């Protein structure tokens, strides 16, 4: 095996327990996601195989990479047009592939909790969750790990300074202290780039956006950095489980060690103490041995998703956030919240957050106090070095 010596191309190992060899794991994760996508698109011949970015999550349950399983796959590079936002939670606002992959993964976690509650012993045993020993809630079984694959560098801070593959002689970021490094960035409506967050446009109002003000959505780099602090499970899932973090983030192309590590966690290492159970997660970061070629052509307007147990891909129009017949996605807030409500009812005796049955989505989310405290701590970490709102003019 010819090992590539350029420092920018080297994997950065995960902090904590290493169950796999980084490059072996990265290549396996990439292959599994691409193969699953091929299977779901009849060997890439389906019209819905068209894509710019492909993402997916692979689960490992031990040290053997051969036992890894694809949990979900998704594509997409666009966000909703502000006029289609749904006040009933029926539309997907952000259809970037990695964001859709996380929503699919949450759907999978719900199904695993449902398995746990199932009357069938077999289903119960097969669940990836087990009850916590002496406190309420659930934990993942030992050695269960999730690995996020993205076919290219996530938009925003990770990608903006690494638009090309790292060269063999690439010695890393030559200007790591430039002010533009590490800044929070937002996606712009109906576009594919990102811009730094400015104080003047951080307050968005519903009526403003409906009237045509540009809808700003956090870049994928910033969202993933957030998952590395508060977990990817979201506030609702935190009623049932402790925070769950990605063990690896694998890029199919444009992997650049300095830029990716800065965007994912290095820019917030000064973060203050987090609430119990939360920590700054430093996952394995790695490219793959044979980087994927750039996907030429115009980016399609649709985004697809699939998770274990689904018959087929679901195709969502990224502009409207629904399918072409106007039906809501299985990943929309409304759908996930309905499932959460059922679980909340069944698990009321073992919830990590004790509240009376919440009367609204907002109330349910707000009651996750520790989660919100962790999020506020992250927010302060982003503001401190001048990365966030109000600190820079364009
Ligand atoms: Zn993105």
Automatic annotation (TrEMBL):
A single MF term (Gene Ontology): tRNA-specific adenosine deaminase activity
A Pfam family the protein falls into: A_deamin
PANTHER family referenced in this protein's UniProt entry, alphabetically: DOUBLE-STRANDED RNA-SPECIFIC EDITASE 1, EUKARYOTE SPECIFIC DSRNA BINDING PROTEIN
Domain A to I editase: residue ranges: 72-394
GO cellular component: cytoplasm; nucleolus
GO BP terms in the entry: adenosine to inosine editing; RNA processing
Protein name in UniProt: A to I editase domain-containing protein
Species of provenance: Mugilogobius chulae
InterPro entries: A_deamin (IPR002466)
């Amino acid at each position: 095996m010819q090992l590539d010596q350029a420092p920018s191309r080297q994997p950065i190992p995960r902090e904590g327990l290493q169950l796999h060899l980084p490059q072996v794991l990265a290549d396996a994760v990439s292959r599994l996601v691409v193969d699953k996508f091929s299977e779901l698109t009849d060997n890439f011949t389906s019209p819905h195989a068209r894509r710019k970015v492909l993402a997916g999550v692979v689960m490992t349950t031990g040290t053997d990479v051969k036992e890894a399983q694809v949990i979900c796959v998704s594509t997409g590079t666009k966000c909703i047009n502000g006029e289609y936002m749904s006040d009933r939670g029926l539309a997907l606002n952000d259809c970037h592939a990695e964001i859709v992959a996380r929503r699919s993964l949450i759907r999978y976690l719900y199904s695993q909790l449902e398995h746990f509650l199932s009357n069938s012993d077999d289903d119960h045993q097969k669940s990836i969750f087990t009850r916590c020993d002496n406190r309420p809630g659930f934990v993942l079984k030992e050695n269960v790990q999730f690995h996020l694959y993205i076919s290219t560098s996530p938009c925003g801070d990770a990608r903006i300074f690494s638009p090309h593959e790292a060269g063999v002689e690439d010695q890393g970021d030559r200007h790591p202290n430039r002010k533009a490094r590490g800044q929070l960035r937002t996606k712009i409506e109906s576009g594919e780039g990102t811009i730094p967050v400015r104080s003047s446009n951080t307050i968005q109002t519903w009526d403003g956006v409906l009237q045509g003000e540009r809808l700003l959505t956090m870049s994928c780099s910033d969202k993933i950095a957030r998952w590395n602090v508060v977990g990817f499970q979201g506030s609702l899932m935190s009623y049932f489980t402790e925070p769950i973090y990605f063990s690896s983030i694998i890029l199919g192309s444009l992997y650049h060690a300095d830029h990716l590590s800065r965007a994912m966690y290095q820019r917030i290492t000064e973060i203050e103490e987090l609430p119990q159970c939360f920590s700054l997660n430093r996952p394995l970061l790695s490219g793959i041995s044979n980087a994927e070629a750039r996907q030429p052509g115009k980016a399609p307007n649709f985004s697809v998703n699939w998770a274990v147990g689904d018959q087929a891909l679901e195709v969502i129009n990224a502009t409207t956030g629904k399918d072409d017949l106007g039906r809501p996605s299985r990943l929309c807030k409304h759908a996930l919240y309905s499932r959460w409500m059922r679980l909340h009812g069944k698990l009321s005796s073992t919830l990590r957050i004790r509240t009376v049955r919440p009367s609204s989505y907002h109330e349910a989310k707000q009651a996750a106090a520790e989660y919100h405290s962790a999020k506020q701590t992250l927010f302060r970490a982003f503001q401190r070095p001048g990365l966030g709102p109000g600190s820079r003019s364009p």
